[in-house]
User: Fold these one by one.
Assistant:
Number 1:
Amino acid sequence: MIHTKWSDDFMGIAYRYFDLRMNIVPLLPHRKKALKMWQDVIHWWYDASIRVRFIEYPDQYRFVIGAESRRPDSNVSFYKILHKSPHYERFKTGYGDAAYLRLGEYSTKRLQDVKDSDVCNCGHPAGDHADDESTECLEDGCDCNEFVQTQVYMLRRKKTITDIVFLDYTDIEKDPLSWNCINSNPS
Ligand SMILES: [Zn+2]
Ligand SMILES: [Zn+2]
């Protein structure tokens, strides 16, 4: 019996087209944290052994990833319970037969950190936002009340994943990785 260590210590997942394939991008708040997760764990995974499972609930899904490692003693598997999103649905229908695994840094910038031409999540440039406490958008009809720019920076290193399965939460007994994850981490 293998004792798997589990971690959900990341912020979420981005799904991006890049380098011809879709990328599964676990997000970390700092580049340093992403590099550490890669160097400590993912770097040692055998690509062909990487398994990704999407366990689906009515509105949520549980992302599960694990692999065999050249350093089994310090190996970790990861999971996260997330809300289904259009990006998730696009990945599900569009990934084909393989995806890349990359880590990402999720950065959030406020008005004081950017140039006037940098664009807010509302789609309007920083220069169109009030320059006081509220930093609301001054464009007609825009209901943005705070300048926030979020960006995902993907690390270059990647691994190829070919073993990707979507399954219903009522149907996990046959899948050892999903079964292990749910039993070790009941939500
Ligand atoms: Zn805005
Ligand atoms: Zn706006």
Number 2:
Amino acid sequence: MKQTPGEQQLEIRFRPGQITKSGFMGDDTRHIHDIIEADGKVLERFGLKKADIADRLTLFMDEGKKELEGKVDLGEYVVQVHWARGLMPCPFGEPGLHPKVVVHVFSKASRQEIRYSQLSVHMIRKHGFWGGKGSVFRLEPIDVIRLLKMGGNGE
Ligand SMILES: [Zn+2]
């Protein structure tokens, strides 16, 4: 299928060296829309909405921001937030800039950690995009759902 110029522009912004050094696609060769659809199906299986995930990730980010670079112990989880200078646009191209904030959420129970950026939270919420497989900030929906103990038993 032939792509529209708009779609080509969209794809370019996800490539390495455009908005970020390593880009958003990793070694994923699927079309952006197919990645979104596949990840959306995982959420559906658990009866979750994009906003459910984004809200929870935001909650941890906000807690982490209360300590400057320090660890915040929330009981079951430990959160740490790292700030970098500057702002970045969303690769989907709408106006607005996002702070370069990276959040680590560590689960004491499972000894697992997820890591995500403030931009990732935005992309999950607004675009349903979790990153291409192999990309630096790719989040696996299933890992997030398990670590944050969300949804029912969708499996
Ligand atoms: Zn966006």
